[in-house]
Amino acid sequence: MGVRLMVVDDHRLLAEALASALKLRGHRVLAAAAPAAGAAELVITRAPEVCLFGTAAPAEPGIFDPVVRIKRERPQVAVLVLGPVPSPRGIAAAFASGASGYVRHDERIEGVERAIMKARAGEAAVAPALLQGAFSELLNPAAQPDDEGQRLLQMLTPREVEVLVRVADGEDTRLIAAGMGIAPSTARTHVQRVLMKLGVGSRLEAAALAARTGLLDRASPLPRPGEDLDAKPE
């Protein structure tokens, strides 16, 4: 038997694509809406059995305020959060707001459907390991918010940090190689390793991520000619 659903996400294309896939599987989709932040009124009015609530930043303060309102005014609606690979803090925030589960954006449609059925049945629709981490965070919250910039900085060697700073300054491979006194092929390898560690697909994405997280503010200044900041072996 199909489930009465609503799909809300900041990305309308994603919301509509998921809604279409669920309709094909026999579910009744009442609406696909964007942005997620303004969808609470629609969910409260339509009163679906399950609301799929998409977010790209589950750990951001206030992101689940619409979920809190939905659960306050329509407690019978099960809210299933769709988001990126989460931190325990993001999972904890979702459950603290009243959500019934958390599903990664890259989950297959079969996995999303299983989570929907669990949420409608009143079960926790989340992987056990993620749930354990969320409860640990709720019971023993960190004294300070997650520092993504510091976490990313710790993933890179000092030389890779220098490469990232140069990328963010708009230097191409030739300039990076000249500035660091290395071969262009070596510079290219460093750039690829930085992209891989940061989980991005381009130099532009790497620069944007570094700026957004404050990583560049934490990075050491570029070395003067003849100076080597690569204090630890690669």
UniProtKB/TrEMBL annotation:
Residue stretches making up the HTH luxR-type domain: 149-214
Record's protein name: Response regulator transcription factor
Molecular function per GO: DNA binding
Annotated ranges, domain Response regulatory: 4-120
InterPro entries: CheY-like_superfamily, Sig_transdc_resp-reg_C-effctor, Sig_transdc_resp-reg_receiver, Tscrpt_reg_LuxR_C
Pfam families per record: GerE
Sorted UniProt keywords: DNA-binding, Transcription, Transcription regulation
The UniProt record lists the keyword DNA-binding: yes
Keyword Protease: no
Organism: Streptomyces acidicola
GO biological process entries: phosphorelay signal transduction system; regulation of DNA-templated transcription
Lineage start: Bacteria, Bacillati, Actinomycetota, Actinomycetes, Kitasatosporales
